Amino acid sequence: MWERGHMKKILVYGIDEQRLGVISGIASNFCDEVHFVKNSELSERVIDILEKEADPKFSEQPLNELELCMFGGFDRESIFEFIDMMKETGIKRPVFATVTSNNLEWDFERVLVDVNQEHIEMQKMNATNAKK
Questions:
Q1: How far apart are CA 118 and CA 95, in angstroms?
Q2: If we measure between CA atoms, which residue out of 109, 118, 97, 119 comes closest to residue 1?
């Protein structure tokens, strides 16, 4: 989801400089831009950040421990291929999300918090199911 000329863009937040370099390298095979979301952009809508010129440089520490790699304009197959390539690197994977018609108008911090909370709940559920 997200059109703007069918551009593909990845928004990242809270990912350290080393992993950001790996992600950017993988992303170069899949998308037009990677944008490192700044702390000052957390209150901006996802659509507004997507429409900006990308800033792929790591320049500040995140305000919290949350992290996110958000795909805009990707089809399902490309996302899974990207994630498979991430697995091959052996680095700690960030939390992944896609731009949807629902979250496009949300401020980025809301997406960040919601997706990370959902990730924690899924991990708890998976751990509970693994014990059975």
A1: 10
A2: 97
